[in-house]
Amino acid sequence: MKLALFDCDGTLVDSGGLIHEVMARTFKAFDLNRPALSATKGIIGLTLDIAIARLLGRDHVDDQALAMTAHYKAIFAGVRAEAGFQELLFPGIAAMMQTLSGRDELLIGAVTGKSRRGLTHIAETHGFDRMFFVSRTADDCPSKPHPAMVTECCLEAGIDPRDTVVIGDAIYDMQMAKAAGAAAIGVAWGYAGVSDLVEAGADYIARTPADIIEWMEHYHA
Question: A Gene Ontology biological process annotation (predicted)?
């Protein structure tokens, strides 16, 4: 048996626009200049409080970062409900997940900086809830790149990290995978640059979701 652990934001769903809008409104509510889109994309994947602290230029989560985190969470669902801010699947993701979930020798899971509530919404919206055998969120583990999300999923699934691959679009995903002793696939359609993913330890770069299926066929040969 093998285990494939997918990041969510920037890997399965295109949530960058939504995250940036909620972040911009949060900064405005605290009379701060809205972050640049590139800055927001750079923190996607981190646990929210750490992400906000980093956007504030701080190396730790202080009271202001905690207050902003609470505000972000409070307005998130309302912004998502507005036209143009839905978290849509990237092209080809639905077919890829359907193909991989049909393989008897492969278990699928999720490792995400989203909250448990956020992951549940995505999973139920897109029919992934029946596909995810294991999952870890920001509510369960330390922020990426700490390896806990991966190692805990491996323990729960009864699969060694050496038989596990993490698929993600952020350098934190690659670093987390390597720290856990798992393989790492970087996706080119997300929010980090390909060269950054390679530098962070990606074993392979998928240009399309179909590339992941192809890599998995080789992985299971």
Answer: DNA repair
